Amino acid sequence: xxxxxxxxxxxxxxxxxxxxxxxxxxxxxxxxxxxxxxxxxxxxxxxxxxxxxxxxxxxxxxxxxxxxxxxxxxxxxxxxxxxxxxxxxxxxxxxxxxxxxxxxxxxxxxxxxxxxxxxxxxxxxxxxxxxxxxxxxxxxxxxxxxxxxxxxxxxxxxxxxxxxxxxxxxxxxxxxxxxxxxxxxxxxxxxxxxxxxxxxxxxxxxxxxxxxxxxxxxxxxxxxxxxxxxxxxxxxxxxxxxxxxxxxxxxxxxxxxxxxxxxxxxxxxxxxxxxxxxxxxxxxxxxxxxxxxxxxxxxxxxxxxxxxxxxxxxxxxxxxxxxxxxxxxxxxxxxxxxxxxxxxxxxxxxxxxxxxxxxxxxxxxxxxxxxxxxxxxxxxxxxxxxxxxxxxxxxxxxxxxxxxxxxxxxxxxxxxxxxxxxxxxxxxxxxxxxxxxxxxxxxxxxxxxxxxxxxxxxxxxxxxxxxxxxxxxxxxxxxxxxxxxxxxxxxxxxxxxxxxxxxxxxxxxxxxxxxxxxxxxxxxxxxxxxxxxxxxxxxxx
Amino acid sequence: xxxxxxxxxxxxxxxxxxxxxxxxxxxxxxxxxxxxxxxxxxxxxxxxxxxxxxxxxxxxxxxxxxxxxxxxxxxxxxxxxxxxxxxxxxxxxxxxxxxxxxxxxxxxxxxxxxxxxxxxxxxxxxxxxxxxxxxxx
Lengths: 541, 137
Hints:
The complex is a heterodimer of chains A (541) and B (137).
Chain A: H1 9-23, E1 28-29, H2 32-35, E2 56-58, H3 63-76, E3 80-83, E4 102-105, E5 112-116, E6 121-124, H4 130-140, E7 144-145, H5 156-161, H6 170-173, E8 179-185, E9 191-193, E10 227-234, E11 236-237, E12 241-249, H7 255-267, E13 276-278, H8 295-305, H9 310-319, E14 324-332, H10 334-348, E15 355-358, E16 362-363, H11 368-373, E17 402-406, E18 409-411, H12 414-431, E19 448-450, E20 453-457, H13 461-480, H14 490-499, H15 502-518, H16 534-537
Helix pairs in contact in A: 1-3, 8-9, 12-13, 13-14
Chain B: H1 4-9, H2 18-24, E1 41-47, H3 51-62, E2 67-70, H4 75-87, E3 92-97, H5 99-110, E4 114-122, E5 126-133
Parallel strand pairs in B: 1-2, 1-3
Antiparallel strand pairs in B: 3-5, 4-5
């Protein structure tokens, strides 16, 4: 039997007996066959001694059982690693930061406690998946939408605590920002409700976010200060219609005004959906099965990255292609969103040569036929179709066994996109990384761009080692330019936390002060997002 | 393209897949008796995009199994069919698919104590597989 670090085998056995007494022995998993299910399928250390693996797993069913587990863990100083559904692949899965931790698997706590159609909110337990919540709403014919990540088999609680995102409108895409109220079990087993939930008999727990006094919900995201056992979310009232409009501009440097207008329209809530930026002339972003860009085009792209875009513009003109395209998306009454698109056209018309393509107006709800054709996540429909992409094909003969996301936040302006590409293209060449000739940022988040580079994880230790080294270099290079990652897998959390180092790591020191106060024995997810308890901290500095 | 209707009415398959020997408990590809009890399959999954998977679906049908066609994406199969079925208890399934659908179905089946009991890589980067109740199911 594996044991947690620093815990005597006899103590661990005693703790397991007490856990079994608290939650039922059938919900205490200790066999390799069961515990191996919690390995991170996308671990960049797969099969190596450094791969982080659990020692056991517990699957409680109630808040009271979670409280009992916390108290037992405190008594025996057993590290717990909390997961909701554990399907956060690409950013860590269900494997702990600290090998030997006991996974606290909240999948059985899967009750949808409330969905309020009138005021569009929900209250759920951590084991509720997006599919569960979608089914609950669909079966009752409620006119509210959820906002889902892609793939959608994770949970609203887990994804929002990890600060994941979705694909509908601004105020719902940022899943943590869309939450309203939490219930949290602390390390000592105490139970806290945040916001209005702190008032016994509150009638507005999911209707007003901050309650009274400090708003502390944020400390329970990307952290290890408590075990969230309930969480409220604001939902999107089902809109009447959906409309897209595409803007094309001819020249490479038109990206600068294109983004300026886009920012105005998004920040003014004229267009609410997640905008899609692309470059027709560069063929970016390229689909997974696209052939490599021809060398002559790559040469022109490289010149453009170096500041000389004239030849790329000439090439685009000769091919009848435009430099940039952005598709903006509208949700709301058909008349209103048609007017918003017309207004957007006026604004983009300041760019010489801008062309507009009207998208189809889709009246909602979707018909069955429409549902099969649309990008489901833009309509709040969870899907796993993303796993059918990336299969072996002529252009991708050696697909990886998984991926790890490198995901820096970049300022929302065209100049920053050019600069980031110059930096990342050079880094990709230097380290042999599969960085595309030109990377197009995503518009998941308000006010900023997100770059997403998926680096392959394989079952070849040598390749993984090389990718890890390159990944670490990229993190440092990005930090050197003031670009920080918004999220990462446990393998890189210490590294990335170390780049948020203003004033001699004042933020991390504050995290550690909180950790020592709230969880003095360091039993809750030690190491998550770089926050280690005191007894495990020294060696990591 | 072969549709589900073609599979249903296309006649008896000619290929034999080792996975069925594992499922029906008859004989292994080498011919020896496996000595395992027959496994009741709730559904056999094939992918219409791959001819060998379509053959697999045909053979499953000829053997009397209920079949389900996908085209890479297994979401609807799981959401509308397997998820409600598995809510009532474990139910074994088999398939010949690409890695992606197997990866998803395997992980989803863990939640009710099921495991991949047979997995074999086949030509064309496909996998034949059986997901069956595990020790804890």
